[in-house]
Design goal:
With 365 residues, the chain is an alpha+beta fold. The protein folds into two domains: 2-66 and 146-215 and 308-364, FAD/NAD(P)-binding domain (3-Layer(bba) Sandwich); 84-139 and 220-304, 2-Layer Sandwich (D-Amino Acid Oxidase, Chain A, domain 2), CATH 3.30.9.10. The protein contains seven helices and 20 strands. The strands form four sheets. An eight-stranded mixed β-sheet has the order 6-7-5-15-16-17-14-18, with helices on both faces. A six-stranded mixed β-sheet has the order 9-2-1-13-20-19, covered by helices on one side. A three-stranded antiparallel β-sheet has the order 3-8-4. Strand 1, helix 1 (9-20) and strand 2 form a beta-alpha-beta unit. The chain is globular.
């Protein structure tokens, strides 16, 4: 029996691969499927700024795994392709050109666009807002609806015999010496396991886990703004220096910015009266004039599941058996690859070289 704690995009991926291999799997989540970290994410599938090289290659592997997973399902309603249009506001455009050239030299699909080509791909973009900045197009990028993804993969896992237990918190990890033997749940029940897999995202250091099993975390929060349905033709990710935009279904757009100046936590209740909300809408309307006068329909705080040194923590923990961690930022990009690689390691006793630089043991020296 394998227990996966966390029914987000990482936990769903691992549970699906384990169940598909014919093993007994139980997935436990304190909330709803995909309702944690996965529910509030820009969910951009890419490997643009993923240094060092090993991390870039891991994200590229995630992109390839997304394509393979889509081919496995008759329908993949979670996936939205179309690529990314990107430009930067650097005073040194040569630096950006060097970045794109480096990606191209590694085999990453990228091409330069002129103003006419930008308008052809995204007619709603005001190319005057771009100015003289070089514009790159990354056709293999896309975005994912993580909740739809998690639901689809867990439904498939259930068809292979997996049990899914939402709205049931884990209150303790049960151990005998250095061997993890199962979990205690919030209803007072116990579940035995050969391996417990921690896929709890930003909760990977929660008090329910003994200190020796906690992954040190440094989560960061960001503001995500959703528009009402807008008569816009936007079909892909737009990553500009002022604002990041993508479709979000039913005519809505999702707008955010990584470095928005706001002190946010997971418990912050966003207020549409914040001046930063108006500034975000204004910035978006400069790029997409169709958004002029459009208010925010909804605001959400997204908390990124970032281990303390910013890199994934995937693997067994030192001096402990029967326990495995799979905690990472860029989880949307990495999820299908991590699902397959983790299942391979757990079931076949192999050590995947792609994960060598990202073992959690580095936190426990």
């Amino acid at each position: 029996m394998y227990i996966v704690i966390g029914a987000g995009i990482i936990g769903a991926s691992i549970a699906y691969e384990l169940a598909r291999a014919g093993t007994a799997v139980t997935v436990i989540d304190a909330g709803r499927i995909g309702g944690g970290t996965s529910s509030a994410s820009f969910a951009w599938v890419n490997s643009h700024n993923k240094a060092p090289r090993a991390y870039h290659e891991l994200n590229v592997a995630g992109m390839r795994a997304h394509a393979e997973l889509r081919n496995r399902f008759e329908q993949s309603p979670w996936w939205h392709g179309g690529g990314t249009i990107e430009w930067e506001g650097s005073t040194d455009p040569g630096r950006y050109r060097q970045k794109v050239a480096l990606l191209q030299s590694s085999g990453y699909a990228a091409q330069w666009l002129d103003a006419a080509q930008v308008r052809e791909l995204e007619p709603d973009i005001d190319t005057g807002a771009i100015g003289d900045a070089p514009v790159a197009f990354f056709p293999d990028d896309g975005w994912v609806d993580p909740v739809v993804y998690s639901q689809a993969l867990l439904a498939a896992a259930r068809q292979h015999g997996a049990r899914i237990l939402p709205h049931l918190g884990v209150t303790a990890i049960r151990r005998q010496g250095t061997q993890v033997t199962g979990v205690t749940t919030a209803d007072g029940g116990t579940l035995d396991a050969d391996v417990v897999i921690n896929c709890t995202g930003r909760w990977a250091d929660q008090a329910a886990f003994p200190p020796a099993l906690q992954i040190p975390m440094a989560p960061s929060a960001g503001l995500m703004l959703f528009t009402p349905p807008v008569a816009s033709s936007v079909q892909r990710v737009i990553f500009s220096p002022q604002v990041h935009i993508r479709p979000d279904g039913a005519g809505r757009l999702l707008i955010c910015r990584n470095d928005l100046d706001l002190a946010l936590t997971a418990d912050t209740i966003p207020d549409p009266r914040w001046p930063q909300v108006a500034a975000l809408l204004q910035a978006a309307a400069i790029v997409l004039p169709v958004l002029r006068g459009v208010p925010a329909e909804a605001l959400r705080i997204g908390v990124r599941a970032i281990p303390a040194d910013q890199f994934p923590a995937i693997g067994a923990l030192p001096d402990t058996s029967g326990y495995y961690a799979a905690v990472t930022h860029s989880g949307v990009t990495l999820a299908p690859f991590i699902g397959a690689a983790v299942a391979d390691e757990i079931l076949n006793g192999v050590s995947r070289p792609e994960l060598t630089d990202f073992r959690p043991g580095r936190f426990f020296h």
